[in-house]
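Hello,

Our lab assistant flagged a job as stuck in the queue for most of the afternoon. It eventually completed. Since we weren't sure the result was trustworthy after the delay, we are filing this so someone can double-check. Below is the sequence as submitted and the structure that was eventually returned. Let us know if re-running is recommended.
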Amino acid sequence: MTRGAAQGSCANRESLLTPFPGLPGSASHSRLVQRLRRRYEDELPLLPPGAPTQDSMAACLAALAERGHDELGARLRILRQLVMERLVVLDCEQAAPLAVVTRAVTELAELALDAACAHAFAQLDERHGAPLTEAGQRAQLWVIGMGKFGARELNVSSDIDLIYVYDDDGETTGRDDGRGQITVHEYFTRAVKLIQGLIGDTTEHGFVFRVDLALRPNGNSGPTVCSLDALEEYMLVQGREWERFAWLKSRVVAPRAAIAGGSAEGLRGVVLPFVFRKYLDYNVFESLRTLHDQIRSHASRRSAGRPERANDVKLSRGGIREIEFTVQLLQVVRGGQFPSCARARRWRRCSAWPVPS
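-- returned structure --
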């Protein structure tokens, strides 16, 4: 390569690294934006200016109710469409940082789940009375966000991985006429069904989020909701190494009252010992090697006969999935001895790594 060619290559690389300033008016060329602006012309002004936040989205949700959108499911779906239109504008026209997008989508999911929980509880309390534990306290449901949701990294096309757990068994109080009494487990099973419908069903306004429950204990063959005791027993008896990785990025995302009231802290005593072992377990390395081989085998099968997938930035050798695996491996193996390693967010750690020139 000549000196001139090398200088030109360097200049091109530097130009690619120059911050993108945004293109005013470019969002209007998107067919998605065109469709949303036609369909929701009257509702778009209800979302306050600027990057969507939980407070501004809550205000928009209330304004939609005042406009005559009586059904919560419809309001949540319309809100999502308004947020998507705003994020396209911020991304394309104002070069908003990625963190603005991921925060907005994550907070939209949290807001939607909190509203769906409140709606489901109100309906079921009317039919069956309040769910009470054997100690006489109201039973608490915790909606646990996994994966990108747990890490606050949702993007505009993400689905949400959820696990539903309640604190203790018991029965509902029943209605005033003495009927309608059911177990706490049945109460929350019905609540989850209502929440899933409000969030995941597709209607004329689309969906709020696609919901995946496959990470729950026993996967798709298990119950949609389990008690804290059942979760603890599952982790002790059947919990697998890949599930330690999955729970690494878990957090309670709804209801907001359970988070603010501190009841969700009860999960820590069950989850933390499962994910982070106090003493280094050398037997775990063989399981991790097997898991890593499975990741590479999946990538190889995916790219078979598709040469363009051989350099997949996410799944190929040295891609995002392997970076994620490496960082999580260090967290899982060392997190029990070094709490700072357990708390570190993946991308914050990666951002400190040197970039080869």
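-- support follow-up --
The delay was a queue issue, not a problem with the job. The result is valid. The chain has three domains: 17-96, 113-275, 276-357. The chain has 15 helices and seven strands.
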